[in-house]
Amino acid sequence: MVDVSPKEQFLSKRFLKAKKIFWRIFLGIIFIPIFLIIMIFVLCTLYSESMKMYPERIDGIKISSPIPVVPGEGMPKDFTPMHSTNNVDLTRVGTSIFMAFRTAPSHFASPNTRMYVMRSDDEGKTWEQELQLNMGKDLREPRFLYFKDKLFLYFYTGGTDPLRFQPGYIHYCERQKGGHWTEPRKIFQPGYVIWRIRTLGERAYMSVYYGIDIYGKGDRGDARILFSSDGVDWEPISNEPQIDRVGAEEAEFVFDEKGGIVALVRLEVGGGALVCRAPADNISRWECKWTPYKVDSSLMFTHKGRYYVIGRRNVAGRSARGSDFLPEGIRNAWSMVFYSLTRKRTCIYEIDPNTLELYPLVDLPSKGDTAFAGIVPLSENKYYLVNYSSPLEGLDLPWIGGQLLGSRLYGFLLDFSGIE
Questions:
Q1: Which of the 8 DSSP states describes residue 217?
Q2: Which of 60, 242, 324, 370 is the most buried (most CB within 10 A)?
Q3: Which 3-state string (H, E, C) describes the chain?
Q4: Tell me, what CATH number does 334's domain have?
């Protein structure tokens, strides 16, 4: 038996006590930040702000239950999408409906991204593959143009880094006889992203925005309209952009009955959106009104003189966050983080072209990563809409959760027969 002196016993107890304190501090340093991050994530995900909806403005419109499209029973037997299927566009040529979409491992940029064109001759019940694109980089924003008896598909190439936004060139492919498509060819200038194409008379019009550094140190606001007489050569309608505000993206627009423009522009930096109009005699000069509610991935269409928008709605309300006392860079960074951690829906909105007010009407079944729709008419009062969403049977994930875990395409039949 070894005798231990009172001094040694005292030092041993002090050592054990110090060891316990050390481990408590060490574990606290590790776990307290993790706990706080988890709490912030949970609180942001659960956070919501009431947004006044106007369901009375949609009285008379019937919306079907969601129809699985991709994956779906109507897809070709040998077709297998990846986890994230999104970015869809539709057009109708005669009795055929064409659908283009992106599929990739996640919402973010990937060299494994594929873009497909499918054709349906039975109003979307079954589909036949016509085109597959894989260019070793990200491919996004497919846009159809049927113009002067020619069918074009436009899109832009991105990068391969999932943490960076790196727009390259806008490209186009043209459909040939027998369902063959030409190889992709570049148009316009590097750094621009395509958003929407419309036609008026003998011209086609394309909205684009300059995307280089738009999420970083970009200080160039450049959302503009291009025009073309053949679908191949494009040039701006004016020397100055239609919107020169930094962070202006996704300039969605339609022509009114007089040839003027009604538009909705997303503001990625600073938050919110611009509701705009331009007269027929000067479509290059836009008058705009700001709304604090950012509408992502917007699609506009008109029916009997009314202007509808399909776009993403933030369950947490306005997108701009942070005190005005904070530096602008910190406010913008927190706004983007908060926006990614909150829940989303695809919503049907309406724009009043006279007051430039934006009215949210009703949410479509949607959640997680959602909203980037295409639409085609089936008859005078009926439309076929395809939108993307995280699996409807799954959890109500925040946007970032859906972006990582995947999304699918769903179809809806819209019946406007009750609208006078």
A1: T
A2: 370
A3: CCCCCHHHHHHHHHHHHHHHHHHHHHHHHHHHHHHHHHHHHHHHHHCCCCCCCCHHHHCCCEECCCEEEECCCCCCCCCCCCCEEEEEEEEEECCEEEEEEEEECCCCCCCCCEEEEEEECCCCCCCEEEEEECCCCCEEEEEEEEECCEEEEEEEECCCCCCCCCCCCEEEEEECHHHCECCCEEECCCCEEEEEEEEECCEEEEEEEECCCCCCCCCCCCEEEEEECCCCCCEECCCCCCECCCCEEEEEEEECCCCCEEEEEEECCCCCEEEEEECCCCCCCCEEEEECCCCEEEEEEEECCEEEEEEEEECCCCCCCCCCCCCHHHHHHHHHHHHHCCCEEEEEEEEECCCCEEEEEEEECCCCCCCCCEEEECCCCEEEEEEEECCCCCCCCCHHHHHHHCEEEEEEEEECCCCC
A4: 2.120.10.10
Mean pLDDT (the chain) is 92
Query: What number of residues does the chain have?
Result: 420
Tokens read off for 250: 């996704």
What tens digit of pLDDT does each residue of 73-119 get? 999 999 999 999 999 999 999 999 999 999 999 999 999 999 999 99
CB-CB contact of 228 with 206 (8 Å)? yes
Residue 366 falls inside a structural domain: yes
Is 378 a domain residue?
yes
Q: Inform me whether the pLDDT recorded for 274 exceeds 90.
A: yes
What separation, in Å, do the N-terminal and C-terminal C-alpha atoms of the chain show? 101
Q: Tell me which residue range forms the domain holding 318.
A: 47-415
Is 38 part of any domain? no
Of 345, 332, 358, nearest in space to 389 by CA: 345
Sequence-ordered list of residues with C-beta below 8 angstroms from that of 369, at least 6 positions apart, any chain: 84, 86, 107, 344, 388, 389, 390, 397, 399, 401, 402, 403, 406, 407
Six token digits for residue 81: 């999408």
183's tokens: 């190889």
pLDDT one-digit tens code per residue, 137-158: 999 999 999 999 999 999 999 9
> Residue written as tokens 């041993």?
12
State the amino acid at position 12 in one-letter form.
Answer: S
Q: Is residue 273 part of a domain?
A: yes
What domain count does the chain have? 1
State how beta strands 62-63 and 357-364 pair: unpaired
Cα 70 to Cα 118, 224, 370, 390, 399, distances in angstroms: 11, 33, 14, 12, 20
Identify the sign of the CA torsion 56, 58, 62, 66: negative
